[in-house]
Each structure stands twice: as structure tokens, then as C-alpha cells.
Amino acid sequence: MDEIREVDKSIIGLTSSEVEQRIALGLTNKINTNTDKTTLEIVLSNVCTYFNLIFLIISILLIVVGSFRNLTFLPVIIGNTVIGIVQELRAKKTLEKMKFLSAPHSDVIRDGVLQNVLSEELVKDDIILLTAGKQICADAFVISGSVQVNESLLTGESDEIEKNTGSKLLSGSFVVSGECYAKLEKVGDESYISKLSTQAKTMKSKEQSEMIRHINLIVKVVGIVIIPIGAVLFLQSFYVNGDTLRKSVTSTVAAVLGMIPEGLYLLTTVALAISTMKLATKKVLLHDMKSIETLARVDVLCVDKTGTITEPDMKVEDVFLCKGTNSSIDYSDFEKLLFSYALASKDNNATMQALKEYANKKGIKGAVDATVKVLPFSSSLKYGSITFEEGCYLFGAPEIILKDNFISFENEVLDYTEKGSRVLLFAKYDGCNIEDGINGNVTPIGFIAFENPIRENAVDTFNYFKSQGVDIKVISGDNPLTVSQIASQAGIENAENYIDASLLDTDKKIQEAISFYTVFGRVTPKQKQKLVKALQADGHTVAMTGDGVNDILAMKDADCSVAMASGSEAATHAAQVVLLDSDFAHMPDLVYEGRRVVNNIERSASLFLVKNIFSLLLAVLSAVFMFTYPLEPAQISFVSMFTIGVPGFLLALEPNKNRIKGSFIKNVLIKALPGGLTDVIAVFALVVCGEVFEISTDSIGTVATMVMSVVGFMILIKISYPLDLRKYIIILLNIAGLIFTGIFLRKLFALTDLSGISILLMFTFGFAAESLFRNMTVLVEKNQILLEKIRIKLEQKKK
């Protein structure tokens, strides 16, 4: 724990022995606000599932009737469970390491020394120093100083609240501006944020991405229908058709097994876990797993200028006096006043740090010492002020401080704003109660131009988003012309379309402006939030990136929020994604990873649903036409292994950067329906032919298995387009595996020797299935286009 700066000598804080006493009593700030699953929860969530219970029951039934070969699905189920547990635990371990790197820290006074420690190491009665951007880590009260606090993350109210000596501070809120010393009174489980943690964990479990929500819906529907359908099939087979108990059980189990998407949830879990670990290697921390999918669906990316497009650090480019002003202050006095302001300021932002660095380099000494009152810089006001004994001085946005009088001075700063420099005004103020606004006389003294270089990889990053059809909106508190120039230099399309957000004084104007303008300058934190909401109201999926407290409101309401770790602590805690090395160039990696995962899971999920659709419809036909379900569990496992399970998992790891379009469940069903219907028609026709030609049920089951395998590979080839060498290898290896298993392990998978007529039927139906699948695909796709046209017309009528 290193000493980081001098501290108010009157504040001693706790002694080391007092800290140890409180630790012994358990009065620490360590709380379990982690919303991730524990190791035990991960194991139980993979083992104790509804479908695992079904698998256990059907396994017991198969053992009871002596059908041991039909237990071939068990190794797959056990393997799926083990893989799911291992991958989730690996992802958890990786994330825990990453989160430790971004763990919150606090500045605490102990033994009269200001130290920086982990927030969970604080104890009751500790005295901490709070500055702009800091998140309040425990319930406290102010003992010295004054801060503006935002409690929106707790209460939803976005107003900044002034906290003075004696004021209460709630854990979970964050400091917008100012500086104060606060004493902790409720830590750990007693704090306000701890009491909200249970609710937050419950909410998180309910807030699922579209993909996860739809997969859960599929699982839920299947889970409901398999019980009554299974019961009907067993009763029909045993009592109506007069089959043996063994035959009735195995046929019923085969139907139920076919309807269960046993690998789909595992596939999703593993794919997301692998993506999380991949992003971790690139210093990207995901607070929220669903943000991977959300980023894949983003079509508008809102970015702040400073720290996102540009480097987080600034430097003073020029300092010059205002022309045409009645100020009698010369350049030397101006620099001294400016440095006095910087010394007295409680701001710790990049602007003030650049000003202090400039003064130190030039060896400027302050001219004024006695400070009467300090108003920290505020993103909503766009200026700050300090009152010395000899007068009040303002520092901030020229057009805000000078109002209409700025026109007279605009040409003096035009050269700087046109090349993207940030220009601020230093002025003397003759009024009083500056908190209520600038109402008195303002005498401009001088301007300070700040250089804020564009990130080295900004152009390539924004070109990537342009190529992917993602619109960029630049939302900044700086001068709109300055922001426009910076955006143009960064290669952002339509950056010349800019507007001063101070003109957007109604929600209607914001909604109208959002579709036309690319750059928004002089935006307040509340307006940033409204701009994000306006984009969402326009049907967009919005991601918001930022690094300061002025971005938090917008980040909170965006579909996905991304923070730079070099920014404020509060911003990183409010965000779903944190770039730990603050490199905006990782954004394309995030979007690519999201698109890869969702597109590949969507593609692989359609393979699983083919089997589910087929089994469900064939079970219904079995019940209606009173025939015994023609397949055995081992045959279902045989087809699933080589046409669904293995290729599905391999394809889920393929590169894929296509933009996500449409609803997940709709896309999956459209891909799966042709194959499912083809299988149903082919197998139903085989059952009919079997009765006509008096072919044994065992032979029909074998023929149906081989025809389904042919259809399975046709579906696999269809969804694998465009084919490349890796996909050819995946398909050919699975075909080889199926042929090898069908020849050498045919008894294990209930494949019998076929008669001449059975072989003829197999080839006939195999070729017919190819034509049927092709026509079914065309029919489904045409209906999809027709339904989409009808939907668009209905929406147009509503508008």
C-alpha cells in the first residue's frame, strides 16, 4: 500500500491496531455482491436438470426390461454434463482473475497517511477520500469537503445531489464532482448496496438474452409435451397394438429421446464460455455474459470523444489572451491566475491534469493563495469556478460562459476548433451564487487550447464498423465543431453532420435529430441518456462506450455498455464490458466474437431441432394412426451422433462475422423445418410400405435410420454453406464415422441385416428424400418471404 499524496493534517484516521481490532470483529467491507454462480451451483446446474431426471428414469426403465444396448445415449449425456461443468469452471476461473485486476480500490487515511487499498479491505470508521469518478463503496457521511453525487444506479433519479459536511452517502452511488473526506458507518453486509445484492442476483437470472430466452423456451415446451406424448405412446403400443413390455418401453423411449434437445443447452454454454475466455486473453472483461450476444446485434454504436476516439490524456497546446476585452490582466498574470486556479481546483480530470503539467513545465508560480469557495467542474454545467478573496474566476466552455457574447470571440478560437483542439475559457465573474447559473458580468481573460490526439488505431476500428453496417454516433460534451473535426480525422462517416445539443431542448427535437446528425456536441449527461433512448425508440440496438461519470446514465440505459478501465471507477462498475487495457481497437473483436457465437449456435441449433421436430410429429402420427413408433433409442443415438452432435459442436467454433438478422427462434425453425418434415414424411411412408410388403419392424427401423442419416447429411451440407476445407473435413469424417460404426458396431446400434426389398426401399427413399428436402426448403423459404412482405405491409399500415 503506497502513499499517494499529502493529506489534511487534521485528519488522522484509524491506527493500524484499530484496523486490526475491527477486522477481528468482522467489521470489514467484504460483501458477496458477486452475481456469478459458485462452483457448487455450476455443478448442480449441470447435473440436476429436468432432462437429466428424464434420462435417469428412461435408463431405469430400459434396464428393467433388459434393453441394455439402448443405453448408448448415456455416455453422451454423461460426457455432455462433464464438459459443461469443466468449461463453466474454466470460464469462472478466468473471469475471477480478470475481475481481480479491475477490483475497486479506495483512498483511505490510516495513521495520518493516505493509502490506496482494495475497497473490501476497508473497515468500519475508516475515513476515505472521495473524488470525481469514484464509486462510494460503503455507507458513510461527509466529515469535510463537498461533492456532487449521483444516485441513479440506486434510485433511478439522475439529478446530481450536493453532499456537504454531515450528509449521508449511500454505497453504490458515485461522485460526479468535488472532493470530500467521509467516515464509513455501515460496511459489508450492513451497507445499502449489500442489501440490494440479493435482488440484483434475482434480476440477473431473469434478464436473459434473446438467444438464451428462446433456447429456454424450446426446452420448456419440450419438457411439457414429452410426458403426455410418452404416456400415450406406451399405452397405445402395450394395450392397443399388443406389443411386449420391452418393445413398448423401447419405442416410447426412442420417441422421448428424439424430442429432447439434450446437446443444445450444452452447446450454448460451451460456446459462450469459450468466447468469454478468448476475450479475456485480449484484456476484455465481461460483467454480463449476455453482452456477447447483444454486441452481435448492435447496429448503432454511441461513443464519447475523449478517451474513446482520442487518447485519455491531454496536453496544453496554447495559452493566449482574449482580444477586444476590457481586462487589464497581462499574459504573465493570466498564467499565474490560471495556475492558482489549477492548484485550488478539486477536479482530477484529464483537462486539469494537463493544465497542472503545463504549469510545472513552465515553472509558473501561483498569484492567489486564499480560496473562499470552490465549485468543481460539472458535465451538466460545462464549467467550474473558484472564488478567491480578490474575486471569482470561471473555467469552462466559452459558449456556455459567454452565452450570446461568444460570437464576438468565436474567430479567436476558430483555427483551433477547426483542427479538433479543445478550447476552454478563463474569465472573471462579478456576480454571486454561481451555483444558480451565470447571471452577473463576465470578463473574458484568455483561452487555453488542449491537444487530444486520436487513438492510433481509430481509423481502422471505425472502418471496420462501417463495413459491418454499424452506424456511429459521437456524443460529447465538447464544442460540436471540435468533435466533428476529431470524428472526421478518425474516419467516421458523415462526421460533418453535427449539432449543438443545447439547441435540442425537447424530447421531440432529440428524436428528430437522432436520425440526421452523426455528431452531437455540448451534450449533458441527461441528454446522452435521452439520445440513447431515442435511438432505441427508433428500433435500433444500441451500444454505448465511455470512460467518465458523464457517460454512466447513457451506459445504464444502452442495450450494451462498454467502459475503458482507464476512466472513472464508477463507469467501469456500471458497464457490462470493460476494456482492461482501455484499447478501443478491441471493439471489433467483441462484435466479431458475438456474431460468431450467435450465428454458429443458430446454425447448430437447427440441427438439434430437426430431430426434435421429426420425433414430435412422428409421435403424433403414431398416436393418430395407431402404429408403434418404428425406431429404437440406439438408432436415434446413432443418427444424432454423426449428423447432429459432433458436427454441431465443431461448427459452433467456426469463424463467422455475418450480421445477426431476425429472431433467433424464427431463424432456427426455418432452417430446421425442411429437414424435420422430410424425415417425418420419409419414415411415415416407410412404415406404410413395411405393412404393404410385410417387412419386419426391425428392418423398417434400420432402413429409416439410414434414410434419416442421408437427410441429416443433406441438412448439414445446407447449413454449412459456404463450404471450405475445414467444413469438408468435418462432413467427410462424420460420414466415415457413420459408415464405420454402421458396419462394425451395427448390433450395438440395433441395425439389422436387410433383405433385398429392404435395400431397394432404402435406396429409393434415400434418393426421394433428397428431392423432397430440396422442395421442402424452397417451399419454406418462399413462405418466409411471403410472410415477411405481409408483416412489412401491416407495419406500414399501422404507421
Commentary on this structure:
The protein is built from 27 helices and 21 strands. With 799 residues, it is of the alpha/beta class. An 8-stranded mixed β-sheet has the order 8-21-20-19-9-16-18-17, sandwiched between helices. α8 runs parallel beside α23. The protein is elongated.
Features:
53% helix; 7-stranded antiparallel β-sheet; alpha/beta; 799 residues; single chain
Q: Terminal Cα separation, in Å?
A: 62 Å
As a whole number of angstroms, the C-alpha radius of gyration is 33 Å
* Mean pLDDT, all residues: 84
Task: Please give the order of strands in the largest beta sheet.
Answer: 8-21-20-19-9-16-18-17
State the helical fraction.
Answer: 40-55%
Main beta-sheet annotation = 8 strands, mixed
Class from secondary-structure proportions: alpha/beta
Oligomeric assembly: single chain
Rough shape?
A: elongated
- The proportion of strand residues reads 15-25%
Q: Outline the low-pLDDT stretches.
A: 197-206
Would you report the number of β strands?
21
Helix count? 27
